[in-house]
Design brief:
The chain is mainly α. It is built from six helices and no strands. Helix 1 crosses helix 2.
């Protein structure tokens, strides 16, 4: 194990600082390129996980809003607004994620449906089997679904 690999295993923060210094100095031959590539891939995966997670948290109160109009609350509206704001920031910082939103709604929706059923006490079957909201509606800061 060379010094860079040892530092990577023992002190990740120090390793990141050293790798950044080497790259800025143009010393790529001394940089730990294998681990750098691995960390860059991990960052991309992390952003995709955040996209799915935020979509789930957004879809859940949208479903509750639609299916329990009598229980609508400022808390639900606040969660919807906050998740849209966070998604807006994420998608502005990583525009290539925009093309993944419809696909990731498909991944997030079953989880949001299950969570909404648990929170509302409604049967899971009370909610549509596929997401009733388009990507545009989900992200639209002015959209709130009407009651079913």
């Amino acid at each position: 194990m060379n010094a860079a690999e040892t530092l990577y295993e023992q002190d990740f923060h120090a390793w990141t600082e050293e790798q950044a210094r080497l790259l800025r100095a143009g010393m790529t031959g001394r940089a730990d390129l294998a681990h750098i590539a691995e960390e860059i891939e991990t960052l991309g995966a992390s952003e995709r996980r955040e996209l799915e997670s935020r979509l789930k948290v957004l879809l859940q109160p949208l479903l509750k809003w639609r299916h329990q109009p009598e229980a609508r609350s400022t808390g639900w509206a606040g969660t919807i607004a906050e998740q849209r704001d966070q998604l807006d920031t994420l998608l502005r910082q990583s525009p290539s994620l925009c093309r993944l939103v419809p696909e990731y709604i498909g991944y997030a929706y079953p989880k949001a449906r299950r969570a909404a059923a648990l929170e509302t006490g409604l049967a899971r079957e009370a909610f549509p089997p596929t997401c009733p909201f388009t990507a545009e509606q989900a992200l639209d800061p002015d959209f709130l679904p009407g009651a079913v």
